[in-house]
Amino acid sequence: APVPASTHAYPFTTGRWPVGLLQSLRGGPAMSGFQNFQFAHSHRWALVLMVSLVALCAHAASSPAGQGAFTVTLRRQQIPLHNTGGMVHHKSAYYGQIAIGGPQAQLFEVVFDTGSGHLVVPSAMCKAETCRRHRRYRRRASLTAEDIDVDGSVVNPWQARDQITVSFGTGEVT
């Protein structure tokens, strides 16, 4: 059962990597099980990684808290892993809701990974079954989105974009 929500403030620096890796997204606010948040091993997603980071950092920079920080209410879910000699081991997942883009923000329920500085959301351009099962970021619905390359430079609309692969212990995303 989920533990009561707690509030944590995460500092963000505009234009740099924010804290939190979105391992996966769920289409609704309820969380029915951790399996909805796990990557399939070596499964690749078409992503709008950099666009989302810029949008999230822009939101943080304009937040009421100022100074590039905002508060995300986190909820914890404990997942039993295995039973060893009568002792059940648990893994905790922390998740919360963020808003990306503007003027009409797109809401995402995200899982935060304290071991990474990446935030990954599926793109509306991704047509894979894995992406279609989750809420996807619609870049064209945001007036604040900017496409950037891996070095942080802004990409013109007619230019090709960098494509990167980020590897994790549970798989990778492209």
Automatic annotation (TrEMBL):
Entry GO MF terms: aspartic-type endopeptidase activity
Matching InterPro entries: Aspartic_peptidase_A1, PEPTIDASE_A1, Peptidase_aspartic_dom_sf
Occurrences of domain Peptidase A1 (ranges): 94-174
Disulfide bonds: C126-C131
Keywords: Aspartyl protease, Disulfide bond, Hydrolase, Protease
One of the protein's GO biological processes: proteolysis
Family, per entry: Belongs to the peptidase A1 family.
Protein name stated in the entry: Peptidase A1 domain-containing protein
Provenance organism: Alexandrium andersonii
